[in-house]
Amino acid sequence: MKDTAREAHDAEGRQSSAERGIVRRTMGVRLADAAAQLAAAGALIIVSLCLSLVSPVFLTFNNLFNIVAQTAVTAVIAIGMTFVIITAGIDLSVGSTAALGGMLGTLMMSHTGLSWPLAVVGGALIGGVIGLGNGLLITGAGLNPFIATLGMMSVARGLTYLTTNAVGVYGLPGDFGLLGQGLIDNIPIPLVILVIVAILAHLLLTRTRLGRYTYAIGSNQEAARLSGIPIGRYLIAIYVLQGLLAGFAGMIASSRVVSGQPNFGVGLELDVIAATVIGGASLFGGQGTIIGTLIGAFLIAVIRNGCVLLNINLYYQDVISGAVIWLAVYWDQFRRKKLATASQ
């Protein structure tokens, strides 16, 4: 009887210790997310204050509108990338997907006379098809997300050039420009769109089964599989979501210039990934928030805008962007080491 009681006591102790470990890790992840968001927000405030002091143009309405319009495109795609990166995946095809969605969406208007709202839906659906292809390559063919989306980046870009022989699409309805240039009571429509998308994505990530499974897959895919989560199905859904948002963002970008541009989105994936990681998403999976991603996207946009206002050479801008990505990844690794130490 004493042995039985001792074994039961030991089992309870182990369970209690495991539960405490889970609680510590959960609290650690939340604190790490909060710290990342505060750090990114602090950097955004500091950079904005510095630019407002050195450039009288920075706080003008036109410049702020340009920042918002540019950020809306990057941030909408980055919101989808947040889901992908939380699962410990990556999508390198988002720039090409946005270009393809924008080109085919504008072609629907110019060649078939389709109304621009329906064409926007069509462009987003084109992106969703690309996302579906990525999901099937990863879950069905068993390809690594990096390889699958790297190949898709080339395929989608090639299709973009083939659709119009690398020539822009013009002659679009003038009211199509409202999507990327319009105002509602002096509030930029791209900002309204971004807020709506961000709220819906936040609710999806924090209040639905898809969101819970996204974190579970990224934290420990094998444990998620053993617990009965249909990993393949949810990964496909996440990559389709990423594609839909990329195609939609491509239509917003096309609306800004009221034309379809085949070269749009070259290198865009770097800004998207940087914004997501700066905002606290971990490239190793299991961490990330929509709010953090928005802060990261605006920080990237403000830095790029400041480079233009200060007449910094375009090539130096690329150097700065690369350095920001290095710092973001280094910070991600540092946070994970601290979190691992604290949870032990």
TrEMBL record:
One of its GO terms (cellular component) is plasma membrane. Keywords: Cell inner membrane, Cell membrane, Membrane, Transmembrane, Transmembrane helix, Transport. The chain crosses the membrane at residues 34-58, 64-85, 116-139, 146-167, 187-205, 234-253, 273-302, 314-331. It is a multi-pass membrane protein. The keyword Transmembrane applies. InterPro entries: ABC_transp_permease. Pfam families: BPD_transp_2. It is found in: Cell membrane. Its main location: membrane. GO terms for molecular function: transmembrane transporter activity. PANTHER family: ABC TRANSPORTER PERMEASE PROTEIN YPHD-RELATED, ABC TRANSPORTER PERMEASE PROTEIN YPHD-RELATED-RELATED. This is ABC transporter permease.
